[in-house]
Specification:
The protein has two domains: 149 residues, Electron Transport, Fmn-binding Protein, Chain A (Pnp Oxidase, Chain A, Roll); 42 residues, no CATH class. The protein has six helices and nine strands; from the N terminus they run ααββββαββαααβββ. Helix 5 crosses helix 6.
Length: 198
């Protein structure tokens, strides 16, 4: 008998949705998550991104395909995500394979962004060196001139990614750093679950 483990849903996707709903009610920007990628040689990098979709198909974020993370995902399409919701003393770790969203799905999200953010996507040579802030401002002004109306097309170098989970860990903080941890791993069409030591 393990009351905490038994209280979790047997499907970690369902349990994530419950915890995300809790976080949405009490945490500023619950969608802010850490994304870790690595080169084919195993050199890691991590940064914060915004989780823009989640459900049975996986966990979605958007970025410039020519950024460092985009280049690493093209060469090594695996990633890890971490959501940490401090007021709830909870975190969720997700590991999985990564696939790019098609242009239609990417445009659907891109069109929902504020006009300035759409122009910024065209203007930023993300992760690459720039001379100074003035260069960025010049590039943004050029995008404003190029797309003077509200219609801003999807840049060919920008779009979405989906992390398709193969493992998900739920972590609940406890006193004395004696935390509760449950790890789920893909098992055919389902999941197998076990408790981890803190």
């Amino acid at each position: 008998m393990d009351a905490w483990l038994d209280s979790l849903d047997s499907d970690p996707i369902v349990q994530f949705e419950r915890w995300f709903a809790d976080a949405s009610a009490s945490v500023r920007a619950p969608e802010a998550i850490a994304l870790a990628t690595a080169t084919p040689e195993g050199v890691p990098s991590v940064r914060m991104v915004l989780l823009k979709g989640h459900g049975p198909d996986g966990y979605v974020f958007f970025t410039n395909h020519e950024s460092r993370k985009g280049a690493e995902l093209a060469a090594n399409p695996r990633a890890a995500l971490v959501a940490y919701w401090q007021p709830l003393d909870r975190q969720v770790r997700i590991e999985g394979d990564v696939e790019r969203l098609d242009a239609e799905a990417s445009f659907a999200y891109f069109a929902s962004r504020p006009h300035g953010a759409r122009l910024a996507a065209w203007s930023s040579p993300q992760s690459r060196p720039v001379t100074d802030r003035a260069e960025l401002e010049r590039r943004y002004a050029e995008s404003e001139s190029r797309f003077p109306g509200d219609e801003v097309p999807l840049p060919p170098f920008w779009g979405g990614y989906r992390v398709v989970p193969v493992a998900i860990e739920l972590w609940q903080g406890r006193d004395n750093r004696f935390h509760d941890r449950a790890r789920y791993e893909r098992d055919g069409d389902g999941w197998r679950r076990h408790r981890l030591g803190p």
